[in-house]
């Protein structure tokens, strides 16, 4: 980005910056108050917080009646996101390599299928998946929803991995095979280390989408024992008896902070993938 | 040759299995479910045959005589009842006499059956008469039959002789499981509700796509292009926030902004406007915010795609035009936009699909309200099949609605595949072993 055209002295960028700042204002206000409101109380009818308080954070040490324990929920979310990451990385790194390098029948067909599915709005299948999970008895279990979510994100993962493998020079594999290593060893020992940064990016991305996922756990695993943070927060918000934005936001901050930290540290990696086309 | 082939098949197998299980099978199943009337009431496995009040009402039009007949209690003196009577250990004479002189008789009402029982030689008491008559009650009303034949056998025992055609009608009316039907598609085609939802969807997708996913994304990409790099990255980071924030929190923030005790209400309150719920007070406002909520997320993808496309334009073109005295607008109009044709088409195609299918944000913000003002197709399918207020989840109808989206999705993704020129993406493996 350094060689941006700072083209001329004829034009100033100040007006556009002002205009864009104005457009960005709603987002800034919402995010600023997301953090402010969790540690303060504001009098009704006022926008300026009046006192400091930690009571909105009490959900961390007190379990609300009828709601699961927050730490259990967090653990579930972590397991959910990690397993998805593991499955996607394993399966996509193998399939991507095949599509990029190996000679298998119907390779082109499979690649086309992956591309179509990558754009395909998979959430429309949720009704059928719901009924299937009920049939096979994986409804309301983490395993079921992990498999579904991983499968749904898989085409994007395979597609990205294929792209990453394409950039690895053939010479590396040639050298390996000439030295007598099998194609599997070549892949495992020589090619995989080459795409470590890519694996890291895909892994982070999968973890973040898993961490953020709402509709699949909501529909396929809503039970208290397997609840994840998004479902927990949504159930708090929908409960009309305890309407308290301070608490919602505190849970929200608790939920979003890991995302923001990962995002800040690994922005460069993630940008590539977000630009490469996710859904939304 | 051989080893690489086997290795390839082994390595691709997990992906193929997962894709088969969670994409291809659900697509086929959606199509199959769409042709049934599955719902909570019918269950998703098999059903049974039960003469409910509802079934009798259904039968009344075709076979009024039978319907009233079944609805009434029937009393049959049979071996089963006699065995039960022996079990009660009343006077032995009851059983012997009933067996001897009344075996096989059918009484259309309790009164007639009890008259016979009362006339027995051993003179049962009133309490006993009631007890005995209960044992012979063979009414089919509200009895569950596991198979069709069971039901027909019982009806026959009660003295209803039915032709095969009549049997078919009765069995249809009393079956509680799901059946094949094309009714769902008729509803989709004819119901005015569906037409309204369809219009909502078209409005929502086209307006969001046009205003935000394309136009505003272009605006973001072009303005940040002309900014110093550090400022540009700040704005890009801000506009990526909606995408990286988990959707539940993101929508929560909007709710807080628009709630009747939220930011806008408080802010307007400073100028004397009474607080109100800006999200749900009118259909107009609801749409306004639904489009903003989705548009803010959607803008970021276009922003990133267009930004990288602009970065790929050779700098010399900008320098040359600058020397010739071109204005910024002229640069945008004649250099940037023509070279963004394919990225714009790509984003349009991709985001049309995403918008058609995504209902997370609407579900969490307006739930399709106020009334059904912001109900879009995918949300309506979800409401019909998985989450509604009446409690009867109509899987069949919901699947039919989803099937429409699936078909649209497949068609649009195939177009998308053409745009990508996929044939240029696959190269021959260089190592043959």
Describe the structure.
- The complex is a heterodimer of chains A (280) and B (433).
- Chain A has 280 residues and is an all-alpha fold.
- Chain A has two domains: 17-53; 66-275, MetI-like fold (Orthogonal Bundle), CATH 1.10.3720.10.
- Chain A is 67% helix and 1% strand.
- Chain A has a two-stranded antiparallel ribbon.
- In chain A, helix 2 crosses helix 8 (196-212).
- Chain A is globular, with a radius of gyration of 23 Å.
- Chain B has three domains: 48-65 and 142-176, no CATH class; 73-138; 191-393, MetI-like (MetI-like fold), CATH 1.10.3720.
- Chain B has 21 helices and four strands.
- Chain B has a two-stranded antiparallel sheet. A two-stranded antiparallel sheet of chain B has the order 2-3.
- The longest helix of chain B has 34 residues, at 192-225.
- Chain B is elongated, with a radius of gyration of 35 Å.
- The chains are: A mainly alpha (280), B mainly alpha (433).
- Chains A and B meet through helix 1, helix 2, helix 3, helix 4 and helix 5 of A and helix 1, helix 11, helix 12, helix 13 and helix 14 of B.
Strand-helix topology:
The complex is a heterodimer of chains A (280) and B (433).
Chain A: H1 14-36, E1 40-41, E2 51-52, H2 70-101, H3 107-119, H4 126-136, H5 142-166, H6 170-178, H7 183-194, H8 196-212, H9 215-220, H10 229-238, H11 245-265, H12 267-275
Antiparallel strand pairs in A: 1-2
Helix pairs in contact in A: 2-5, 2-8, 3-5, 5-8, 6-7, 8-12, 10-11
Chain B: H1 2-34, E1 49-50, H2 53-62, H3 64-71, E2 75-76, H4 79-88, H5 92-102, E3 106-107, H6 110-118, H7 126-135, E4 144-145, H8 148-157, H9 164-174, H10 183-190, H11 192-225, H12 229-244, H13 247-258, H14 263-269, H15 283-311, H16 315-323, H17 328-339, H18 341-357, H19 360-365, H20 377-386, H21 395-420
Antiparallel strand pairs in B: 1-4, 2-3
Helix pairs in contact in B: 1-21, 2-3, 2-9, 4-5, 6-7, 10-21, 11-12, 11-15, 11-18, 12-15, 15-18, 18-21, 20-21
């Amino acid at each position: 980005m350094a060689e941006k055209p700072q083209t001329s002295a004829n034009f100033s960028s100040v007006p556009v910056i002002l205009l864009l700042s104005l457009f960005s204002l709603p987002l800034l206000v919402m995010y600023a108050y997301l953090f402010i409101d969790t540690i303060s109380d504001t009098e009704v009818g006022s926008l300026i917080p009046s006192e400091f308080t930690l009571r909105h954070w009490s959900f961390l040490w007190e379990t609300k009646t009828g709601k699961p324990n927050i730490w259990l929920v967090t653990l579930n979310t972590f397991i959910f996101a990690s397993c998805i990451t593991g499955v996607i990385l394993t399966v996509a790194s193998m399939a991507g390599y095949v599509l990029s390098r190996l000679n298998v029948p119907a390779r082109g067909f499979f690649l086309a299928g992956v591309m179509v599915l990558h754009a395909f709005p998979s959430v429309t299948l949720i009704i059928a998946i719901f009924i299937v999970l009920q049939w096979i008895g994986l409804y309301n279990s983490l395993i079921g929803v992990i498999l579904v979510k991983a499968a749904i994100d898989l085409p994007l993962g395979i597609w990205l991995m294929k792209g990453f493998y394409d950039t690895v020079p053939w010479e590396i594999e040639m050298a390996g095979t000439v030295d007598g290593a099998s194609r599997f060893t070549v892949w495992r020992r020589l090619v995989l280390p080459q795409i470590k940064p890519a694996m890291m990016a895909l892994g982070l991305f999968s973890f973040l989408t898993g961490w953020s996922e709402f509709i699949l756990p909501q529909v396929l695993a809503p039970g208290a024992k397997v609840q994840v943070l998004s479902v927990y927060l949504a159930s708090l918000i929908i409960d009309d008896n305890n309407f308290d934005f301070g608490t919602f936001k505190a849970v929200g901050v608790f939920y979003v902070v890991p995302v923001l930290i990962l995002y800040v540290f690994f922005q460069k990696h993630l940008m590539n993938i977000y630009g490469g086309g996710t859904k939304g | 040759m051989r080893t690489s082939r086997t290795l390839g098949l082994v390595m691709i197998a997990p992906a193929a299995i997962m894709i088969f299980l969670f994409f291809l099978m659900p697509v086929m199943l959606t199509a199959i479910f769409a042709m049934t009337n599955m719902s909570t009431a019918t269950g998703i496995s098999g059903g049974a045959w039960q003469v409910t009040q509802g079934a009798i009402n259904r039968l009344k039009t075709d076979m009024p005589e039978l319907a009233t007949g079944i609805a009434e209690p029937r009393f049959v003196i049979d071996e089963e009842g006699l065995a039960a009577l022996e079990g009660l250990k009343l006077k032995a004479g009851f059983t012997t006499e009933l067996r001897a002189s009344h075996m096989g008789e059918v009484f259309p009402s309790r009164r007639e059956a009890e008259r016979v029982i009362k006339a027995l030689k051993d003179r049962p008491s009133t309490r006993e008469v009631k007890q005995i008559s209960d044992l012979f009650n063979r009414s089919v009303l509200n009895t569950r039959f596991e198979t069709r034949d069971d039901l027909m056998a019982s009806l026959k025992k009660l003295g209803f002789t039915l032709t095969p055609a009549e049997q078919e009608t009765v069995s249809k009316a009393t079956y509680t499981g799901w059946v094949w039907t094309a009714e769902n598609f008729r509803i989709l085609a004819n119901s005015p509700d569906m037409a309204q939802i369809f219009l909502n969807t078209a409005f929502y997708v086209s307006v969001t796509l046009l205003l935000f996913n394309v136009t505003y994304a272009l605006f973001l990409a072009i303005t940040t292009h002309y900014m110093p790099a550090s400022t540009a990255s700040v704005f890009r980071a801000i506009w990526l926030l909606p995408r990286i924030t988990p959707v539940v929190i993101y929508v929560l923030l909007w709710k807080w902004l628009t709630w009747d005790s939220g930011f806008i209400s408080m802010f307007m309150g400073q100028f004397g406007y009474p607080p109100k719920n800006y999200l749900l007070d009118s259909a107009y406002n609801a749409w306004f915010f639904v489009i903003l909520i989705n548009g803010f997320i959607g803008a970021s993808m276009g922003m990133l795609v267009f930004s990288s496309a602009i970065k790929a334009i050779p700098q010399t073109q900008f320098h040359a035009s600058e020397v010739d005295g071109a204005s910024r607008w002229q640069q945008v109009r004649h250099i940037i936009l023509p070279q963004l044709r394919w990225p714009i088409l790509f984003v349009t195609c991709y985001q049309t699909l995403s918008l058609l299918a995504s209902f997370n944000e609407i579900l969490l913000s307006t739930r399709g309200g106020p009334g059904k003002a912001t109900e879009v197709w995918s949300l309506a399918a979800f409401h019909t099949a998985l989450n509604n207020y009446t409690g009867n989840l109509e899987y069949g109808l919901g699947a039919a609605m989803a099937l429409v989206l699936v078909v649209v999705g497949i068609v649009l993704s195939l177009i998308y595949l053409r745009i990508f020129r996929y044939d240029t993406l696959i190269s021959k493996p260089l190592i043959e072993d």
